[in-house]
Amino acid sequence: MALEVRDATGRGQYIDHAQLESSSQFLTPLLLDLQVNDYLATRRGNREDYAAPNNAYRCLGDDRWIALTVTAEAEWSALCHAFGHPEAADDPRFKTFAARKQQEVELDELIAGWTADEEPFGLAERLQSAGVSAGVVQRAEDLFADPQLQHRRFFRRVDHAELGNHAVHGQSFRISGLEPGPLRAAPLLGEHSFDICREVLGMSETEIADYAAKGIFE
């Protein structure tokens, strides 16, 4: 809205945006839980009220991990069968969601033992095919090799005066008939100062030279 007002009137807007007020809406369930149930939420890592297991587990390789989550009994059974441990699906300690939540520490240790010798990408495909929500915790090199990101040309290579040719993030959206960019690298500090002074601020060459002599552009 501020940009529209600027374009329409030529005058800018002052925007006061408070982080506390704008982010407190995300805490509403926790605030209500405290007010109504007298329950004070604390840090809980990857734990979620609606899922068990729900965590990232170490896999085979250097700092390789897989994230997986189970929200239904059918998913738990599918996970156990995919790992080759169908007997765990009927283990009284883990058979129901309530039981898994109660034994969550032991549950995480069990699954960590299953994933420790697994190659993460193949494991993720196997679990997904079985109907279990799972994905590799990807590093930067994995993102560059990701076939979906490659298909969407998410990473673009641009030439920079100091960094050389390097990759930058593209836009997450696509509009028919438009090249999403970015089409050029980020500018150097002060690279366009003179252009802005001339073309945007309407300053004369004499004024620009005077400011430059005073070190204002440094």
Helix/strand order, N-terminal first: HHHEEHHHHEHHEEHH
Q: How many strand segments?
A: 5
Q: How are the strands ordered across the major sheet?
A: 1-2-3
Structural class: alpha+beta
CATH class of the largest domain: Alpha Beta
**CATH architect. name of the largest domain:** 2-Layer Sandwich
Q: How much helix is in the residues?
A: 40-55%
Description:
The protein has 218 residues and is an alpha+beta fold. It folds into 4 domains: 2-37, no CATH class; 54-137, formyl-coa transferase, domain 3; 152-186, no CATH class; 187-218, no CATH class. Helix content is 41%, strand content 12%. It contains 11 helices and 5 strands, in the order H-H-H-E-E-H-H-H-H-E-H-H-E-E-H-H. The protein has helices at residues 2-9, 19-23, 28-37, 73-82, 97-102, 104-115, 120-129, 140-145, 147-151, 193-200, 205-213, and strands spanning 54-58, 65-69, 133-136, 155-160, 164-169. It has a 3-stranded antiparallel β-sheet, covered by helices on one side. A two-stranded antiparallel sheet has the order 4-5. Strand 1 (54-58) and strand 2 (65-69) form a beta hairpin. The longest helix is centred in the middle third of the chain and has 12 residues, at 104-115. The chain starts with a helix and ends in a 5-residue tail after the last helix. The model has no long low-confidence stretch (mean pLDDT 92).
